Predict the 3D structure of the following.
Amino acid sequence: MRLAGWLYLALAYGFVFLPVVVLVVFSFQDGRLPVPPFQGFSLRWYAQVVSDGALMTALWHSALVAFVSSGLALAMGFLAAHALARVRLPGSVFLRGLLIAPMTVSYLIIALGLLTVFNQSGVKLSLWTVGIGHVVINLPLCFAICYGAMGDHQKTAERAARDLGASEARVLWFVSAPMLAPALAAAFFLSVTFSWDEFIIAFLLSRFDLTLPVEIWSMLRSGLSPATNAIGSLLFLVSISAVILMEIFLFRRPK
Amino acid sequence: MSLQSAERKLGWGLLAPALLWTVAFFVLPFLAMVALSFAHMEGRAIVEVFDPGNYVRAFSEWSQLKALINSIEITVTVTVISVVLAWPLAAIIAWQVPARYQRLALLVAVLPFWTSYVVRSYSWLLVLGDNGVINKALMAVGLIAEPLALASTRTATVIGFVHFFVMLLTLTIYANLIQLSPNYARAAQDLGAGRWATFRHVILPLTLPGVITGAFVTFVLCIGDYITPQILGGNAELTLPQLIMLQMGRSGNFPMAAALSVVLMAVVILVYAGCSRWLRLDRL
């Protein structure tokens, strides 16, 4: 029974890692196709990818959209969570549902809705419209994480600060935000990850300024190439570094 | 002004940005899309007269209906296979791996989750393609003479999806299993239940809420995805999102794309209604 367990674990790891290993191995292919046989080790595809202007521009666009839209989503989500957790407002259950709602709708539908409105009102598609879409998908996430993290002991500290004469803005900035720092950081990083990797909204709501997933998508149209492997491997390296850093600094709480 | 009304005013003020954003960029666009779905095309112009024709087409034209059926079939297959594969994986990590290595085991099991979504589907193409790793390996050992047609099939789409969702479900099911007190199983065994009876009547029902929540998320993400079927399934049989993109791109038929999106949304709502009793979305 135990042996079967370890065997299953090994098979599962094998299945999960198979495509990633193939991706990384053939990014070093010294040949024109990223498929067997392996023709020798070469870094030329990495050199090509790093010197590809369109790809690097797309990388910059993605980073810009990810950080700005996540910052905005976090700020709005945090304020809304504070309001709903601390102030008794009429219809708060409905308001909470409304703020969470975009989470249950396909990105494709969110993108189509926005595209309809932008077309009708003559808004030109750009990185801004992509960013608007990304705030829509990340706002519910930030709100939910902040709302879930607001416990009673912060409430006491906030009340103490208020009693000592702090304005609401000071309470938020000097008491609530620092006490929620781990949750805020987690929400921000998750949002950045989602925005950074998001395809369909970025695809439908941009025209000339492409983000990285859209640029990679257009690379796929010309067929298999080790260059795609190289950029894919680089991205994987960046994400797992971020995940490991997050694991070490954010989630390592004694249990 | 009373203290309470001042506080309320502040509350609304803090809530306003998020609320306005959600209404302006989510609720209104969605309503606009629903309205558009009742318009129709004349030549290349959109005529906005109330006309349920798009919905009639969606359910009566075989090419449109087939996409809906494909999507549902693929999504159900993916959800079932993913749950069946992920449950034992989560259980092994929760029960067999020593406690101090569990977090690591879980982290490693979901590491490929962090590859870019587009790149992940592309990677499966390298594995499953005619010149891919699997075909080359099977031909090298002489099991097959001609490459198997694995890519651009429904099987490829399902494999690509299952790969992604096994990782997601392992996380949610593990979170569920780890909260179960071992006392339940002990109590059942003290009362004379065998291993199977303990599993079937005690452990499995206790993990059901977590499993159903994970399965629902899988369903929603899977049925709305365009990338995986487009890269791995090709154009041989279209899914609903592929058809929506096709209606927009090639035919420029926005009203039809909008109607199909509403159909997609309706399927999700029906499934939600069907399992809302067990859903714990707040516990994700």
Remarks:
- The CA atoms of residues 128 and 150 of chain B lie 6 Å apart.
- The longest strand of chain B covers residues 40-42.
- Chain B touches chain A through 79 residues (CB under 8 Å).
- Chain B has a mean pLDDT of 88.
